Fold each of these.
Amino acid sequence: MEWHGSFFERILKIMHGSTDLTIGRPRQQIIFFSLPLVFGTVFQQLYSFIDSIIVGRLISSEALGSVGATYSLSFLIIGVE
């Protein structure tokens, strides 16, 4: 199996914080830059979805309403970090 060095080298540079976003194709640079943000948002949505299922089935509908009411606040707090 042959590895494509440039792709994995770019991922390693991104992980180590030494990526120059002014060099290369803009679209590709933006996509690589936004991947951690996209993955973080997807996992946050998944957490909220699973939390709503568990609270709705195991506790009560009032508790489910409170989870839904605090979702936007938690999204704001996590998004600001």
Note: Helices lie at 5-16, 26-58, 61-80.
Amino acid sequence: MNEKIKELLQKAAQDDQLAAKLEACKTSEEAYAVAVSVVEGVSKEEFVSAMKQLKAAIDASTTLTEEDIGKMAGGIDSSEVSVIVGATLSATSGAAAIAGAI
């Protein structure tokens, strides 16, 4: 992935206002406009491609089966697993917001 896109994702993860701006985007054009206001040197094609890849990775990583949860739990109460998984998923919300607009 392009280093500038990585930089954008890091900034979005650290800046709630930036993450909110990206989350509010309804189109790839809107998301790209926000992205280039934060980092330079990213073409729209690179941005869209990276966000599609990111979305696919997030979708794949957030689909948990009962077996996955059981393997993760390792003796932890299932309600605690839900809290842990929820916290992990919310940490990726900035990236997901960007990817969702694509």
Note: The chain has seven helices and no strands.
